[in-house]
Amino acid sequence: MSNVLPPLEPAVRSYIAAFDLFAVAEFRDGTVTVTRNPAGAVSAYWCEGKREAGFIVKLAQEGRMSLPDAAQRLHLRIGPHAAVVAKATASVEKLNNALIKAHGDGAMRLFNRLYREQREAARAGGRGYMSYTQARAKLTRELFKVAAGEASVGLIARVLTER
After folding, report:
1. Distance between CA 129 and CA 123 in Å, rounded?
2. What is the pTM for the complete model shown?
3. CA–CA dist 79, 57 (Å, integer)
4. How far is 158 from 128, CA to CA, in rounded Å?
5. Three-class SS of the chain
6. pLDDT, one tens digit for every residue, the chain (163 residues)
7. Maximum alpha-carbon separation in the chain
8. Domain residue extents for the chain
9. What is the spatial order of strands in the sheet that 79-80 belongs to?
């Protein structure tokens, strides 16, 4: 009996989503699907774009071929699940360590000051505001997007603006 893939950690899912990656996953019963979290699948490969992942799944099902063969036939690049998750996990850890270091050496002063000002303004207006933990989690998600190539201009404003 084959092992199944475990669920991805939330931070790893966020990192992978920032790069617009989708898994094409195969399950024990032969079902093949597109997903952001291939937990329970027996195998998975990652590709950029949901549409492209859908093409791979469709061709694999219609042509009765493996996912790698379908991707190759479509000239789409895919990455093995273990390699993509290992790289994403290492990147998340590196970013978290950088944030810890930034907090320790004072580089987070601006973010912390602006967070405090926004929180106090919200309280003065009789409104609630996100917790610091929530703000740090949003900062991390936004930094994942920057790592994926999104502009960093307005990063702190995007984090501290509640939606």
Report:
1. 7
2. 0.79
3. 15
4. 18
5. CCCCCCCCCHHHHHHHHHCCEEEEEECCCCCEEEECCCCCCCEEEEEECHHHHHHHHHHHHHCCCCHHHHHHHCCCCCEEHHHHHHHHHHHHHHHHHHHHHHHHCCCCHHHHHHHHHHHHHHHHCCCCCCCHHHHHHHHHHHHHHHHCCCCCCCHHHHHHCCC
6. 459 999 999 999 999 999 999 999 999 999 999 999 999 999 999 999 999 999 999 999 998 999 999 999 999 999 999 999 999 999 999 988 888 888 888 888 888 999 999 999 999 999 999 999 899 888 888 888 888 888 777 888 888 887 6
7. 63
8. 10-86, 108-160
9. 32-35, 21-26, 43-48, 79-80
**3: its two tokens:** 């092992």
Report the C-alpha gap between 103 and 117 in whole angstroms.
18
Quick one: tokens of 44? Answer: 């998975």
- 28: its two tokens: 């024990």
